[in-house]
Description:
The chain is an all-alpha fold. The chain has helices at 3-13, 15-41, 46-53, 57-64, 72-81. The protein has one domain (3-81): Orthogonal Bundle (434 Repressor (Amino-terminal Domain)), CATH 1.10.260.40.
Amino acid sequence: MTRQEKLNYIVNENPDEFILKExxxxxxxxxxxxxxxxxxxxxxxxxxxxxxTGIARPNIARxxxxxxxxxxxxMARLAAGLDMHLDIKWVPNNN
Length: 95
């Protein structure tokens, strides 16, 4: 099933679930874009980051292009590899 077919199924079966999926995709995109920006600002290659973190370079590449969903553990290791820490916040919706 293609990504579009999955989204069509979600929309047809449960519109609320579609909104959740859409938000998850948006959040994943924002997080990965920010990560890539930080990695490049620090002039760290994927290969160097892989050495620092023990995470395989192909997994870092897949995460950066959005085809792999990292765990919180993986994101914390990546942050440490960039001499940073991970800060996740729960924020109320502005309805």
